[in-house]
Amino acid sequence: MCVFCKIVAGEIPSHKVYEDEDTLAFLDIAPVSCGHILVIPKKHFVNMEDIPEDELSKLIKTVKKAGKAIKDGLAVAGYNANVNNDPAAGQIIPHIHFHIIPRTEGDGLRLWPQSKYKEGEAEEALRKIKSCIR
Amino acid sequence: MDCIFCKIIAGDLPSYKVYEDDKVCAFLDVLPIHPGHTIIVPKIHVSDVESLDDGELCAMVTVMKKIGKAVMEGLGVKGYSILLDNKDAANQHVPHVHFHLVPRKEGDGLGRWPQSGYSEGEAEECLKQIQEKL
Fold first, then answer.
1. In this model, does residue A133 exceed pLDDT 80?
2. Options 3.60.21.10, 3.40.1280.10, 3.30.428.10, 3.30.930.10; which CATH number does A3-130 get?
3. What is the ipTM metric for this complex?
């Protein structure tokens, strides 16, 4: 059983922030900043491809609820929410989860660097992606 | 209409549109973290996730799932990250709510923010403050 399923089942302790029938939000024990929350579906889905749309909808609604509670409760100015989908993206636990990370002005956390497309590269990326949209 | 994303949605500014339907638009970020980096926006102008109604939010995640699959198949990448920057403190540069979908590869050098631990009682205090606002 995966570590997140064990947390859902109560076999591993956690600081539960919120739960309902389908989703659970709990504090990450290795937070980037105080109040860093993980939001998961209670059912075991590995990633975005695995989770059905209705379950994903329930998950994102809990993200929205938890994000607002972080801002209001911790009086922080904002937050970043992210999903790392698959090991290539740094997903360590194979149970889909959103991170919500509280942010304050000047906290020193930087976003990933951005660059520019070379000539024709954007058109090529666009063509490839669009050809696979179902 | 001052919002750059509203102008893109309206066709007043050119863009590389990946997908659109009646609620959601997705287009390539012209300053990509990696080629294929796509921005997903609601067609309605709201500044943050809290202002977005659940129906629009769920429509967005459904599109993210669809585009994520197309990005992986079309570009031959094995993963992607989804990012939401909520407010200036979290580096939200355009005040029209948007998700980033960033193609990822093993060893691409995109690091994680440093994580730490809670001092005694700190997690419990954080938890209480968040739960009060749920």
1. yes
2. 3.30.428.10
3. 0.93
Hey, is the C-beta of B46 within 8 angstroms of any chain A C-beta? no
Partners of B105 on chain A (C-beta within 8 Å) are 88
Chain B contacts of A45, Cβ < 8 Å?
none
For domain B4-107, the CATH class is alpha beta
Residues 6+ apart with CB under 8 A from A92: none
CB A26 within 8 A of CB A95: no
Among all residues of chain B, which has the CA nearest to that of A134?
A: B66
What is the rounded distance in angstroms from the CA atom of residue A52 to the CA atom of residue A57?
A: 9
Q: Which residues contact B120 (CB under 8 A, 6 or more apart)?
A: none
Query: Minimal CA–CA distance to B68: which of A27, A92, A53?
Result: A53
B33 close contact with A: CB closer than 8 A:
yes
pLDDT at B79 over 80: yes
Closest CA to A89 of B95, B37, B89, B74: B37
Select the residue of A78, A88, A91 nearest B86 (Cβ to Cβ). A78
Bridge partners, A80 (sequence order): A101, B85
